[in-house]
């Protein structure tokens, strides 16, 4: 009995060991499976992450982000800079992508990059020293165009009608949104009672590139306002010193834009207008009459000068209530840096060259000389 009991004990122990071995094997197998599954998940997640990092961070973004690549920057620092400015998702992926494609010789400089740029576009930009991106289409707004003329241009270049454009830039809710977004550019002055259009003068003349087939109409107007804000920002201190507003500046500049026939004339025409305003003499500039009439004419008639309108500078003192067109940088700078002259009159001859006079008699003589 004793032997049998010992045998039973040994047999039971062996059975227990077998069970333990089976349990250990199951545990090991479970661990291996967990590791393999976890590795697979991690591998798949890693694959997805790298794939997304190779794509534009936001292909629909229209925002441009200023990036300064300093002299002596290497690939590591440039990649880190791009990630810091949220232009790319991962600096390491960008770095390895550039190395894999044997890309180097990046240029130092100031860049305006976008989250919608591909890695290839970013690399090409950084190698050539300029932003490289192929727009779907572009639209040029020349200097001196009115809001209604810009509306026609938008209709020509996009799927939006001129009426849709004018409806948007006349929409009080949209105007308030833009005032909130650009408080140093747009003030309550643009809501003046006698203003013909709130945003007249505030859409900057430039060539705009678009990277999607149908950008929103709001984004088109917003981009033009942003360009004006950027153009005006360098002059905020000068305006503060002169105790003048942006609205005053753009209104004055719009007159120069319409009257000048050459860039060099703008400072002198500005001096004429300043001299007249100092002596309470009406500006008497024909483009304001045409704006009041709401039509383009090759020649302003005497009857036109009699129109009773807040923009008619033959009838009012000083500047009109607001801009009569959208001026460019040259006209803006001429307002802030006018010539010092004793001129009170000027006229454009048949070749569109301006002639200036100090007295009315001189002016009449030049009319006879150049226009009769």
In DSSP terms (H or I, runs of 4 or more residues), the helix count works out at 14
Q: What is the domain tally?
A: 4
Helices and strands, in order, run as HEHHEHEHHHEHHHHHHEEH
Output the strand order for the largest sheet: 1-2
**Unreliable residue runs:** none
Largest sheet: 2 strands, antiparallel
What is the alpha-carbon Rg in Å? 35 Å
Helix content: 40-55%
Shape: elongated
Enzyme class: lyase
Subcellular location: Cell membrane
Catalytic activity: a peptidoglycan chain = a peptidoglycan chain with N-acetyl-1,6-anhydromuramyl-[peptide] at the reducing end + a peptidoglycan chain with N-acetylglucosamine at the non-reducing end
InterPro entries: MLTG-like
Give an overview of the whole structure.
The chain has 4 domains: 1-39; 65-128, Dna Ligase, domain 1; 137-232, no CATH class; 235-371, no CATH class. The chain is mainly alpha-helical. The model has no long low-confidence stretch (mean pLDDT 86). β5 (345-348) and β6 form a beta hairpin. It has helices spanning 2-53, 75-84, 91-100, 119-128, 147-157, 162-169, 172-181, 217-232, 236-242, 246-259, 266-278, 286-293, 329-336, 360-371; strands at residues 65-69, 109-113, 137-140, 207-210, 345-348, 354-357. The chain is built from 14 helices and 6 strands.
Task: Describe the structure concisely for a colleague.
This protein has 372 residues and is mostly helical.
């Amino acid at each position: 009995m004793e032997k049998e009991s010992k045998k039973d004990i040994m047999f039971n122990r062996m059975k227990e060991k077998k069970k333990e071995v089976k349990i250990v094997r199951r545990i090991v197998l479970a661990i291996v499976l967990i590791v393999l599954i976890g590795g697979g998940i991690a591998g798949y997640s890693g694959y997805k992450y790298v794939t997304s990092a190779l794509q534009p961070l936001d292909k629909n973004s229209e925002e441009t982000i200023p990036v300064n690549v300093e002299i002596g920057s290497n690939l590591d620092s440039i990649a880190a800079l791009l990630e810091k400015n949220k232009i790319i998702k991962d600096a390491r992926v960008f770095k390895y992508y550039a190395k894999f494609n044997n890309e180097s010789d990046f240029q130092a400089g100031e860049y305006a990059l976008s989250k919608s740029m591909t890695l290839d576009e970013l690399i090409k930009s950084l190698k050539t020293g300029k932003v490289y991106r192929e727009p779907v289409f572009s639209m040029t707004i020349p200097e001196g165009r009115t809001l209604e003329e810009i509306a026609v241009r938008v209709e020509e270049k996009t799927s939006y009608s001129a009426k849709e454009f004018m409806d948007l830039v006349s929409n009080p809710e949209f105007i308030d949104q833009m005032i909130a977004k650009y408080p140093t550019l747009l003030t309550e002055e643009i809501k003046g009672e006698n203003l013909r259009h709130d945003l007249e003068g505030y859409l900057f003349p430039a060539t705009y590139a678009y990277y999607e087939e149908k950008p929103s109409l709001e984004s088109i107007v917003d981009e033009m306002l942003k360009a004006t804000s950027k153009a005006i920002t360098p002059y905020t201190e000068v305006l503060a010193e002169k105790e003048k507003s942006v609205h005053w500046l753009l209104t004055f500049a719009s007159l120069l834009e319409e009257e000048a026939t050459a860039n060099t004339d703008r400072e002198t025409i500005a001096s004429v207008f300043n001299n007249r305003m100092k002596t309470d003499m009406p500006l008497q500039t024909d483009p304001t009459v045409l704006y009041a009439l709401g039509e383009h004419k090759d020649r302003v008639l005497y009857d036109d000068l009699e129109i009773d309108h807040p923009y008619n500078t033959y009838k009012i003192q000083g500047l009109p209530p607001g801009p009569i067109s959208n001026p460019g940088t040259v006209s803006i700078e001429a307002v802030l840096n006018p010539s010092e002259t004793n001129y009170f009159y000027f006229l454009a001859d048949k070749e569109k060259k301006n002639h200036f006079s100090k007295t009315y008699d001189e002016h009449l003589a030049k009319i006879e000389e150049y226009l009769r």
